[in-house]
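=== Structure Prediction Worksheet ===
Name of assembly: unnamed complex
Input type: mixed (protein and possibly other molecules)
Chain count: four
Listed entries:
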Amino acid sequence: MRYLTSGESHGPKLITIIEGLPAGMPLLAEDINEELARRQKGHGRGRRMQIETDTVEIGGGIRHGYTLGSPVSLIVENNDWKHWTKIMGQDPLDDAEANDIKRKISRPRPGHADLNGAIKYGHRDMRNVLERSSARETTVRVAAGAVAKKLLALLGIKVASHVVEIGGIKSKVADYESIEKLKEITENSPVRCLDEEAGLEMMKAIDEAKANGDSIGGVVEVIVEGMPIGVGSYVHYDRKLDAKLAAAIMSINAFKGVEIGIGFEAARMPGSEVHDEIIWDKETGYSRRTNRLGGLEGGMTNGMPLVVRGVMKPIPTLYKPLKSVDIDTKEEFTASIERSDSCAVPAASVVAEHAVAWELASAIVDQFYSDRFEGLVANIAEHNRHAREF
Amino acid sequence: MRYLTSGESHGPKLITIIEGLPAGMPLLAEDINEELARRQKGHGRGRRMQIETDTVEIGGGIRHGYTLGSPVSLIVENNDWKHWTKIMGQDPLDDAEANDIKRKISRPRPGHADLNGAIKYGHRDMRNVLERSSARETTVRVAAGAVAKKLLALLGIKVASHVVEIGGIKSKVADYESIEKLKEITENSPVRCLDEEAGLEMMKAIDEAKANGDSIGGVVEVIVEGMPIGVGSYVHYDRKLDAKLAAAIMSINAFKGVEIGIGFEAARMPGSEVHDEIIWDKETGYSRRTNRLGGLEGGMTNGMPLVVRGVMKPIPTLYKPLKSVDIDTKEEFTASIERSDSCAVPAASVVAEHAVAWELASAIVDQFYSDRFEGLVANIAEHNRHAREF
Amino acid sequence: MRYLTSGESHGPKLITIIEGLPAGMPLLAEDINEELARRQKGHGRGRRMQIETDTVEIGGGIRHGYTLGSPVSLIVENNDWKHWTKIMGQDPLDDAEANDIKRKISRPRPGHADLNGAIKYGHRDMRNVLERSSARETTVRVAAGAVAKKLLALLGIKVASHVVEIGGIKSKVADYESIEKLKEITENSPVRCLDEEAGLEMMKAIDEAKANGDSIGGVVEVIVEGMPIGVGSYVHYDRKLDAKLAAAIMSINAFKGVEIGIGFEAARMPGSEVHDEIIWDKETGYSRRTNRLGGLEGGMTNGMPLVVRGVMKPIPTLYKPLKSVDIDTKEEFTASIERSDSCAVPAASVVAEHAVAWELASAIVDQFYSDRFEGLVANIAEHNRHAREF
Amino acid sequence: MRYLTSGESHGPKLITIIEGLPAGMPLLAEDINEELARRQKGHGRGRRMQIETDTVEIGGGIRHGYTLGSPVSLIVENNDWKHWTKIMGQDPLDDAEANDIKRKISRPRPGHADLNGAIKYGHRDMRNVLERSSARETTVRVAAGAVAKKLLALLGIKVASHVVEIGGIKSKVADYESIEKLKEITENSPVRCLDEEAGLEMMKAIDEAKANGDSIGGVVEVIVEGMPIGVGSYVHYDRKLDAKLAAAIMSINAFKGVEIGIGFEAARMPGSEVHDEIIWDKETGYSRRTNRLGGLEGGMTNGMPLVVRGVMKPIPTLYKPLKSVDIDTKEEFTASIERSDSCAVPAASVVAEHAVAWELASAIVDQFYSDRFEGLVANIAEHNRHAREF
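=== Predicted Assembly ===
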């Protein structure tokens, strides 16, 4: 499976084309729209999230509620576009128009792609960079991920996410009854936190940051239950599933770290307390007494829940300004104030969930027979039987 | 650029083929052998490291000290192979021989690929898994990385690594005079630590773990200076350099996390203290007052030193046994004692250095003109001038 | 560079996303629309070509007439879609609706993807196959190719195509004054033939085939002038440019063969008459006295015009019916009559031109520096100087 | 599946690494050596073929006669290497040695990669090019293909090849009793021709060409029986199996054309005579009354035998010299006489067979479940049942 995305933050539309899906898989626009809505929620979001209510239009690849096997295209209109047709238009400008263009950006913001991107691609108007480097693009990454998540769900694989830290405040609740229960709690928390008390503190921290013209980051955790054993591979470094998940998480805007299972804690624990003892049961086959390694050993799933965490830095668009340099005048300035979120961590946890879902669905489709969806279901059932009886 | 590796831990040889190198680049076997030697050092290594002194034989792609542009093959003989020709031989066995084969493994070790790999590939003798999943394979990853490092060095890009934490003991020294000085200190430290005092404590912790039949992990840091601005890209998620580096680090055996710059600390700091202010100077162009983001913004290099860290869990091969299950008898056992390292973190920092070097060299070769090495040098010089004068 | 396409023949829209274009390259919707119009012309086309006048909408990646470096999305609406919303709709059907759906196809047509595609993807209604396997998809392949052709044109590389054979009638004119002159003649020929007399015979043959309820195929030739020397590579089989061109041509619907330069004639000529003697001139550097090898030696361009031919079989949709089997009843039938073209070779020559243009532009972007379009121009100029002075 | 190859014609060794094979597949060195021997035979070969008797050494990936799932490396020593250690050595030369180096090449041969390759990679000694562009590299392409062919054979898929034309002399026999019988005849023909009489004429033509200091080319045909229906895909142009086969054939040294089924004849036949009527039988399912389309419709297998042809131009190394230009002096010369084959078409048919086998095995492994070889066997059996009962 592969996908490409296109679209700028204030351009006409965001589009993704997904190639390699099985045929005969149930898929509705609602499946995707629900996830897009989840991405737009969260305490700490700015005004834009209210402007846009993202929904997909299906351009191809689906008929009467089922995938055709042909590429699926998903289109999200930018409702804002009507106000930007001049600034972001595709037609050439004459000199008068060019001079007149508003919102030209010569002042790069620290922590953004602005300056590096402008140097790389030779853009003197850095709007050319930020329109694409914007987290707006994650809309269609979520759309592609929603298709992946649907595929996983139909195979009995459950994906969820929650926020475990915001602005230094950590969730003290790590356990959850079931993934359904975890979802129920986090979907009702404005910061997607399992720990109600910590959640309230997080919201307070977000509000304080906002009041200070500042922003805060945090840590999100994605949990996946029901993956077959042995997805991924140890035989070549670029086939390891943990490596792919690390890339997926790190590629989300503003993420600076990723860890699996106990992650960085592994540097502080003795080997005897790090590894998960193997147990066996006639009914269910092999499992582990603990899950410190987060469901991944040797670059493969081991049948335990996947636990992947990523850290998002505070959003760089700041009310509290940082020094920078105008690329035209070379004069120092303090980075301009733009409307912004003070914390996007809850939304980012939804994005992370979908980035992970994509990698898992993709790995499954690559590893198993997948032309016909019912064949995929049968192949995985057979594999699970093989694993159970091994 | 791309490469493949082949070889089992006790098989005849380890091989890598590297495709896509520029032609006319100076390259000697010594360039690679030096790095292989660095990989074999470090306090806490077991006996095997003494048995093998790895050197490469060049099978193709190099003539009279220069790359040809054709694929480079590098071969490392396993000196141990002569003792394993029966157990690891390629020819079929008759039934008597098959029954007689020694070192058959039916007892999966927790924390290894043993069990998942066996289920995935259907191996009842788990030697078939561990021979490949072994960290022995990193020998040729280092060999490929050494070629990449040479390319970077010839472009004035310096790569180094050091150990910042072992078994909970953290290096207190973060600053270094220059990358050359950092190398000088860490190459002379048996744990590759900048902080002499912490280094002594780390060695003590390793010895204690060994005495207890236990093992410990740690955190390594790779530092790269001299990368051109704008390597990587923000335009598509799978072209982001930070994502590629995350995958490279996470794909190293036993790594469970990766972070860039301040990494997970970003969850605890306000936005106003996270981002790096942009400054400009007529001579040198743009730079940053600080380097909290570790040289990567928007999925691209920003001209500051790259700072990438990874965490390695304690080596799972334990003298202090863990419970597991024999796959033949389904009986519980405590994981068998094998000769082993009690800490491989210093060596892993060398591997991480090479994994990072590969990704950077590969990104450079992909992004710039690279058929002729001198053309690559000129193209980068031109790009650096463009960046400086932007 | 890479691209994906999506869309069914009677679905809502055809879309392509192109990723990897240089930034700062001039690009207008007209550049693409002109090529789309060329694809719709040609003696022998059926009614559908009149229904649809294809034009692209740009969804992203272009601003004020220039590429941004971000992915470019191009959308072509199917004007016919309004009549097909029920038959090709994306929403699920209830049982009554499902039974009522018109134009369900249980009768596979010989020479189409119908039956194999239905078996592969498990479709009992073969409309699910033919909607995607239809040559309608070449619309967006031409759109992507038009972007590639524009890039080539801006680098002074000229791409043209003409029809050299239809239904056994061969063009007797092989020489052309210049590529501009070739274009002038072929653009004015309803069968895109350089040889006016042969062109008239071809049209007669097409009309006769139509009158007989039959169809005919032919051979198209793509010519490219101005490629730099050394694009492609001999160092690895999958990097050879001739191999990529062969795949590009063969992947066009209904193509069954491809040849370069003298092609299959090479089996009948002695080596002394096949190869092109090398000459040299102080002003222009190396060239060849002849061009039997069609501009490609050792998997690379040699500076001579590229000459690539492909053969298209007669369109399988026939008025003159062939026997087949209904997949539901397993009864024999004679393949159903559908409106159709009796010859699509002239249009296919336009498609071939764009398939070739894509491969060439892609090879150039991969081989040279290409982040900034002006950098690409400079890099190729420098390379051409190097080649001339070699 | 993927593979890389390394090695120069007179370098130490040729190596291939194959990644992505199923585990548990029987594989012996003999399986490969037999095919390497077939590649070295054929009327018209020069002396070198007698010098080298190629055999593989297995460097990894196989144990006790079965694949491990890990990458397989295959090494072929160049027996000639001992005479070339100075000329092709890897160590740098001092000035005296450099001046003294023999067999430096400044005179490019028409029809070779020499000149373009030298310009591309900046080699003033064109030995740096021809050592890699030499057809010697096809040794390891055959080795990789032999592994693929073994995989196919174990799945009941039979691959064979024969020569259908040499130097204008065409085989008049197109029919064969069975693929086994075809093999029996062609393996005993020095020109691998089904038609004994034509074979004798071909040999005469080869001898005459040799006597004249000339060379001749020809057309080879690869036939494959037993492929499952629906391998490849129509859904995206780069997934079409015919496109992949075209690339594979065209990437063989000296090939200038490829066709499938009736190929270029399709330009001369009416649609009513080109397509293959579909028939059905309760026992065997669907098949075709004829096989004009060579087993491929819509970019997929249709269950009929695959018929793929390629044309090889006469070997450019000539006794009968062609004009060229010395790149140092810029003086005209007539291309130097080297020992050479006067016709390599029979050997090329063996190479083509393996190039095709690789693509098919690779497509099968990608499309079906393939971690465990027995799982692949079961998955294909299940698919074949599905196809039969469709």
